[in-house]
Design goal:
Elements lengths: L3 E6 L10 H10 L2 E6 L7 H10 L3 E5 L13 H7 L5 E10 L8 H17 L3 E6 L2 H10 L7 E3 L6 H9 L2 E5 L9 H9 L5 E3 L21 H12 L3 H15 L5
Parallel strand pairs: 1-2, 2-3, 3-4, 4-5, 5-6, 6-7, 7-8
Helix pairs in contact: 3-4, 4-5, 8-9
Amino acid sequence: MLTLVDSHCHLDFEPLHANLPQVLQNARDNGVGHMLCVAVTLEKFPAVCALARAHANIYASVGVHPNEQQGEVPSAEDLARLALDEKVVAIGETGLDYYRSTGDMDWQRERFRRHIRAAKQCRKPLIVHTREAAADTLTILREDGAAAIGGVMHCFTETWEVAREALDLGFFISFSGILTFRNADALRAVARQVPADRLLIETDAPYLAPVPHRGRTNEPAFVRYVAECLAEVRGVTLADIADQTTRNFFALFNRAV
């Protein structure tokens, strides 16, 4: 039986949370057996963690999104302490975003480094967001020893050169619904080259719904379309992609049991 994993979604966001029973049923109907609900602020973390505790097949992360400038700024110790919860399998989402934030980015880089320190302290992998900041993202990952813990480059849209450097640091590469977009030929070329044992798939729901649902609210059920596109790109079956990416998910997030 086909089993898929949505390795990155935001089930606590509206409108998903308001319709959660139906969202979870839709996921089951499409073979999605597990989901990682990713935190973006400390204020929202309790709700994310509670959701994961309420469902055996949902896991949580703890972190502050690089664009979030309101709310509590965590220390590495704060993050590592919160990550002790048995349903928390990763630190993040963290990283750098020079597209939506401008000016002096020292605050963003320092917060990214705190997340890396936390991941190393609690021995849980990183979920990394990068947008128009690939060079600095990779530099910080190298300088701060992120290879010791690893993680995933989520919603990957960068070049093969960036992917190769991330792979060299022990990171996985996760593809979202963007892979299905008509203008994503360059990204599909990258997806063709990533080693099979480093591939992950995700929705980033409620954002970035794949073709044929582009423009609609995204949900974990739609990760199937990402898997189908990835299978076509790589010349393998949907079952192959489902099996490989599910095994990869549990290899990386090895506390997701």
